[in-house]
Amino acid sequence: MRLSSIFSILIVTILLNGCEVSDSERRDRSNDNDTENQSWVRLERGTDHSGILVEVLEHAAYAKTDENGHFYFEGLPNGNFTVAAEMPYHEFYQSRERGVRFRDGRPDSPLEVNLAQQVSFIAELPETTINLRDQHPNEPFSLPPHELIVTNLTDDYVTLQSNRGQMVLYAFVPVSGSWPDFEDTGIPCELQYGTLGSDESGPAFAETLEPGKSSRLEVEPELFGQMLNAVCFSSGEYDVYIALSNQLVNSRFFNPDFPFDMDSQQGMDIYINPLSQSLIGKTSVIEPVRITIMK
């Protein structure tokens, strides 16, 4: 055999060996993909799993899930840690804790956590068409008196409570169109009426729900101070989300230094903010009512 042929064979062998991936490396790469795709925190009965707060307790590290329930911690060292998962600002879902080993910001092995839903809200309005044609354009209006059905989905007592703020919260979502560029008392219309939040204070309250039972609450929006500025609303359809407020007495969510801001607006004194936009759309918790406004 010629010397040049021997050299050619050696070069090809070296190149092939250099490109070969060992079984262990192949398994590691596969595990990385599987972990990223299979590790999640999700909401029982839900289809949109975004907005869940995932916290590594030992490092005060926070992440928020996407719509599929996936999450990632940037800069988290490798090791064994305790992970807490919850929906902040309220207890409409149960929270969970789990010991997890992390590698490169993700669980080292597939992690599956389901947060059980505790309560659901269904509103019943006697009239879903609101005619504003006969009133002054700047005259405030309110929804008609209605019932809010709150159901405890667990086999234990659930207490919804607020130490400050309105008892019943409303969010209006235009079915078509958008909010006008108008500020109601210095607050943009979309923030004032399009999120489950309020900057108004009120008395404390607590509502205890019996296991597996529903409670019907008689709601008169005018008595709760739920008056709406007509300038913010156009003719058309709106999906209305109505829920019983449940601000936990947990100052870390409302501390300006809280490093994970979720949906609250910086610099605004919002005491009740149960996930604002993140909770809207989770129809297993709040079933919206469609109304028509005529102007």
Account of the protein in words:
By secondary structure, the protein is an alpha+beta fold. It has 2 domains: 3-115, Immunoglobulin-like; 119-294. 14% of the residues lie in helices and 32% in strands. The N and C termini lie far apart (95 Å). The model is unreliable at 1-35 and 261-275 (pLDDT under 50).
Q: In a few lines, what is going on in this structure?
A:
With 295 residues, this protein is of the alpha+beta class. Helix content is 14%, strand content 32%.
Q: How much helix, percentage-wise, in residues?
A: 10-25%
- Strand-and-helix sequence, N→C? HHEEEEEEEEEEEEEEHEEEHEE
Task: Based on Cα principal axes, name the global outline.
Answer: elongated
Strand order of the largest sheet: 3-2-4-5-6
How would you classify the helix and strand content by structural class? alpha+beta
Q: What does the average pLDDT come to?
A: 76
Number of alpha- plus pi-helical segments: 4
Rounded Rg? 26 Å
